[in-house]
Automatic annotation (TrEMBL):
The protein's name: 5-carboxymethyl-2-hydroxymuconate Delta-isomerase
GO biological process: carboxylic acid metabolic process
Protein origin, superkingdom: Bacteria
Family: Belongs to the FAH family.
PANTHER family in UniProt: FUMARYLACETOACETATE HYDROLASE DOMAIN-CONTAINING PROTEIN 2A, FUMARYLACETOACETATE HYDROLASE DOMAIN-CONTAINING PROTEIN 2A-RELATED
Organism: Hydrogenophaga intermedia
Annotated region described as Disordered, given as residue ranges: 282-306
């Protein structure tokens, strides 16, 4: 199954892709047979999600080119990210390869969907890309054994763990530099685990900046695979349905290059994972939200490229 959340005007909805035609079918919230929100259906279990998807597959086609795509989940309970999970990236970053996963958290306020602008920060010009695989937990649990771990995965998607390097390295922990508003592209859709190899292993992953390939690797090269990550994390932290595990980036980041290659307004960053999809986002200067968290009016095209 492939599932996408989208917005049309002031309304949002979701859709599934029919394998027989390749077309997307679904509806906006409030439709006569609305089956529920994606997050709630994932929390209710795979059977509930499958039943809802069957309802959506019978609805009218949705042209994804005429709607705005949203992150596949609206509010994941936890976003657990993994640093230094490809040996070549660890080496280029100047660290020793850790024997235990390097874990940090992202917040939902950083998430954006496919096509949405990455917010260029006012505080720093060190905006960097990191193409990554993300696993979506479907069945929660604690102290999950490695041999059972993949049965807890609902599916996979693509993530760009955009980092503000100056703020990432202000302190030994990385939270601030990994959580600027509008720096967590996630999507374009969710692909359930039955459509991919176990653990999404053996998939090509590539990041492109303005069409230039800047990262190229394979998910089999991860130091800690998805099953290991689930076992390690759940030993201490109870996983919940809808949690995201963002599984690390390979070599090629802009911060490790000479000269350094940071993203700037007007750039377009793409992350593509074989069998899953292409996540593409422009980089723009955007007005900060007001004190209630509401977005202010959008800038003109001239303002976004200054």
């Amino acid at each position: 199954m492939r599932l996408v959340r989208y917005q049309q005007g002031a309304q949002h909805g979701w859709a599934v892709q029919r394998p027989d035609t390749g077309q997307w079918h679904g509806m906006l919230k409030g439709g006569p047979v609305w089956p529920g929100e994606v997050d709630a259906l994932i929390a209710a279990g795979r059977a509930a999600l499958n039943a809802a998807a069957a309802v959506m597959a019978r609805q009218a086609p949705v042209d994804l080119g005429r709607v705005a795509l949203l992150p596949p989940l609206a509010r994941p309970p936890k976003i657990l990210c993994v640093g230094l999970n490809y040996r070549d990236h660890t080496s280029e970053s100047g660290f020793e390869q850790p024997a235990y996963p390097t874990l940090f958290s992202r917040f939902t306020t950083s998430l954006i969907g496919h096509g949405a602008p990455i917010r260029y920060p006012e505080l720093s010009d060190t905006l960097d890309y990191e193409g990554e695989l993300v696993a979506v937990i479907g069945t929660g649990g604690s102290r999950i054994r490695r041999e059972d771990a993949l049965s807890h995965v609902l599916g996979y998607s693509v993530f760009n763990d955009v980092s503000v390097r100056e703020y990432q390295f202000k302190t030994p922990q990385w939270t601030m530099g990994k959580n600027f508003d509008g720096t967590g592209p996630f999507g374009p859709w969710l692909v359930t685990d039955d459509e991919l190899p176990p653990g999404a292993a053996g998939l090509a992953i590539e990041t492109r900046l303005n069409g230039r390939v800047v990262q190229s690797a394979n998910t089999r090269d991860m130091v800690f695979d998805v099953a290991q990550l689930i076992e390690t994390i759940s030993a201490a932290v109870t996983l919940e349905a809808g949690d995201l595990i963002v599984a690390g980036t390979p070599a090629g980041i802009g911060h490790a290059r000479d000269p350094r290659l940071y993203m700037k307004p007007g750039d377009v960053c793409e992350v593509e994972i074989e069998g899953i999809g292409l996540l593409s986002n422009p980089v723009r200067r955007l007005p900060a939200p007001d004190e209630q968290g509401r977005s202010l009016p959008q800038p003109t095209e001239e303002e976004t490229t200054r």
